[in-house]
């Protein structure tokens, strides 16, 4: 896919922020809006577009006039992409739906453990260790943390600070106290307020950290190497190739297809949360990959994987994760 330079992204962002995003999100079947490249006849045109993501495409003849996405808005082209309903990506409880690597190594117990391995709060199934991080304000690191998602380490807000974190995660055989690798330290609460309109949810990240010991944690990400800094969100271009190592699908690559995306994500239990300022990529994850750190070709951190569908994967911008959790990588 052709890269969209910053100036093209900014042009669409201005149109998006003029109330057009809010208007599109009120339309039937719409679950997200982002900035990407217009696709025509299955091929990228190279033209910037305001992308609308829908659970399913419907013939125009079956839609009410108010639910139709116009072909252009304020001089910017639009596009409609079917993605289904995005969901978080921990391991499913139903064993028959699990898919793991043939050798199953990333679901095993590992000490010291690297990014990419199975991990989880004692009361969930399992997700992925993204990386080992430090406190942002420490010039000389003295405390070491496992980085992953809120729904992996903090059980979607239900956990308490100090709760044991297991490696491997419970569904992969992890048990307390023998397999405890860390204790929950900080998490960014996710807004699920049931009586609050979805459009007022202002989530930026699904992220948490858990403190572990230097002897049991390795800063390397399996197959991906050491993290070499992070990418500011204003410098991320549509078309960037990214990579990750996750508990279920291992090492995989994808392409950034949308930035500055607002997207609704299903957390189960009749809970849907709206996330703003997200990155969407081509599909490269499955259940159990939640928490994977996503980097670019230069091993700069780009995003934290937390959700997806059979068509796309969704990442929190690493800049937001870094700021809200007050962490750093190097």
TrEMBL record:
Q: Which SUPFAM superfamilies match?
A: Trypsin-like serine proteases
Which domain of life does the protein's organism represent?
A: Bacteria
InterPro entries documented for this protein = Peptidase_S1_PA, Peptidase_S1_PA_chymotrypsin
Give UniProt keywords alphabetically.
Hydrolase, Protease, Serine protease
Molecular function (GO) terms for this protein are: serine-type peptidase activity
Specify the protein name: Serine protease
